[in-house]
Task: inverse folding
């Protein structure tokens, strides 16, 4: 009986986590696409040098950073995945969202400062402190996008 | 150089698979492989068990059952139980075990066959028995588990299950759950086989099986729809009408008389049924539990003395006035000046 209750509670917890995570993810993707359209005119490139014909009025370092954590359902799915190996697909969408969000924040920062482009863009990921005492599990990762924002003259 | 401000393409860094589909595939696969492993290793276990000698089993497990822990040699109840076990075991011709009985202070009635030839009986079970024959059948039933080596099979399966789930479950399966499932009792067939063996032992000891099944017969009726304590016993020892009918049929088939003189419970064992708190509140319970005038032995088979088995049951802890007109005086903590000297 206890076992049944336990399994039912676990399943209910997972279902709840899935539903909430799914709603948040859909909303976030919608927002990301909208903002990507809005910021598409601000060029972001990994090139280290400027086009020769550009004349530069000002340069500035811009950063965009986001910290993400996994939800209960995605962690469960990833835990299952570690048994058989393979791509941890449940984390892919999470990191995809995080990278794009970091890039967007960087570009929005550049636009807010009146810049037209960001060059020499880099993306870095760092793991935050472990969430559990045994060192397993992740409190979250930080995705940092940074580059040199350029304001063109004339 | 030309720069075109294009939007990122979807599905490049994200595998387009529905998470529910992925979890169904993964979970199904892992459970299927785990179940297959359990079945295969379970068969291997059954092949292996006959090669584990009782000597080896006792050598390995006795260190965990030190005499003081399981034997309780000084306890009069143990002194009454052990000879009964010895007499029963004397009728098991090829008994490889040195069977020991131990008492567990536990109000819930239960009995266990523990690796190493140790039978554990709870005080709650003794409190609910009315004759030596009943106790003998409970003990003989557990001896039957030793004869079939059910206890080792259960231990082996428990370990297998814990290994498969703990190792293979990759941290997804909770440990508590594993413990719960592995703590379950023997299956129906094992219980039935132990019953038959036990009844045969009782028949060999007394020459009849009268009174042996009374304990099992009485409990379900007396506790219909109540008592969580007793429910716990049936979760590991399910008693069905079919099971009792089957045992009576077996007795008729083998020619074991269903009637005969029933042995009274040894006084030491019977004392247990009158716990100290009852003596203090004797007034309240008197009339329902008329111990002194009770004709022991002959009358325990009859039904009229059991107007309700609950009269003979220990009040469950905390059962203030529910079915029992007594407030159970709990043994209070000793005051600090009574505490033993700190070492």
Result:
């Amino acid at each position: 009986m206890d076992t049944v209750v336990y399994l039912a509670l676990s399943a209910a917890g997972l279902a709840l986590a899935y539903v909430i995570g799914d709603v948040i993810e859909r909303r976030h993707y919608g927002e990301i696409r909208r903002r990507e359209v809005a910021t598409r005119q601000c060029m972001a490139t990994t090139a280290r040098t400027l086009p020769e014909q550009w004349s530069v009025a000002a340069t500035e370092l811009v950063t965009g950073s986001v910290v993400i954590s996994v939800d209960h359902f995605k962690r469960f799915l990833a835990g299952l995945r570690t048994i058989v190996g393979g791509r941890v697909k449940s984390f892919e969408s999470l990191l995809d969202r995080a990278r794009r969000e970091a890039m967007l924040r960087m570009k929005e920062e550049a636009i807010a400062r009146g810049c037209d482009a960001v060059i020499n863009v880099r993306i870095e990921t760092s793991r935050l402190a472990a969430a559990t005492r045994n060192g397993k599990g992740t409190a979250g990762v930080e995705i940092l996008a940074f580059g040199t924002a350029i304001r063109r003259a004339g | 150089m030309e720069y075109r401000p294009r939007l990122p393409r979807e599905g490049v860094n994200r595998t387009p698979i529905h998470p529910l589909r992925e979890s169904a595939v993964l979970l199904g696969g892992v459970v299927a492989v785990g179940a297959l492993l359990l079945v295969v290793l379970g068969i291997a276990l059954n092949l292996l068990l006959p090669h584990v000698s009782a000597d080896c089993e006792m050598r390995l497990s006795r260190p965990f059952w030190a005499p003081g822990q399981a034997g309780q040699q000084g306890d009069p109840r143990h002194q009454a139980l052990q000879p009964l076990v010895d007499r029963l075991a004397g009728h098991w011709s090829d008994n490889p075990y040195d069977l020991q009985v131990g008492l567990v202070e536990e109000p819930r009635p239960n009995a266990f066959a523990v690796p190493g030839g140790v039978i554990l009986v709870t005080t709650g079970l003794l409190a609910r028995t009315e004759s030596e024959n009943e106790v003998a059948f409970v003990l003989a039933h557990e001896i039957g588990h030793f004869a079939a080596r059910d206890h080792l099979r259960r231990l082996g399966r428990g370990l297998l299950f814990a290994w498969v789930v703990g190792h293979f479950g990759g941290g997804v399966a909770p440990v508590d759950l594993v413990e719960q499932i592995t703590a379950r009792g023997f299956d129906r067939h094992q219980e039935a086989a132990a019953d038959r063996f036990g009844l045969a032992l009782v028949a060999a000891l007394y020459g009849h099986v009268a009174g042996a099944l009374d304990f099992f017969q009485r409990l379900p009726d007396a506790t219909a729809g109540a008592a969580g304590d007793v429910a716990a016993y049936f979760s590991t020892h399910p008693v069905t009408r079919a099971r009792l009918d089957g045992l009576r049929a077996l007795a008729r088939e083998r020619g074991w008389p269903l009637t005969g003189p029933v042995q009274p419970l040894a006084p030491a064992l019977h004392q247990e049924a009158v716990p100290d708190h009852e003596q203090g509140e004797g007034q309240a319970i008197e009339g329902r539990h008329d111990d002194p005038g009770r004709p022991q032995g002959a009358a325990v088979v009859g039904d009229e003395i059991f107007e309700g088995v609950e009269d003979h049951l220990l009040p469950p802890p905390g059962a203030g006035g529910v079915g029992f007109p007594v407030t159970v005086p709990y043994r209070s903590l000793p005051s600090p000046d009574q505490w033993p000297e700190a070492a």
Summary: The first helix of chain A runs from residue 2 to 38. The radius of gyration of chain A is 20 Å.
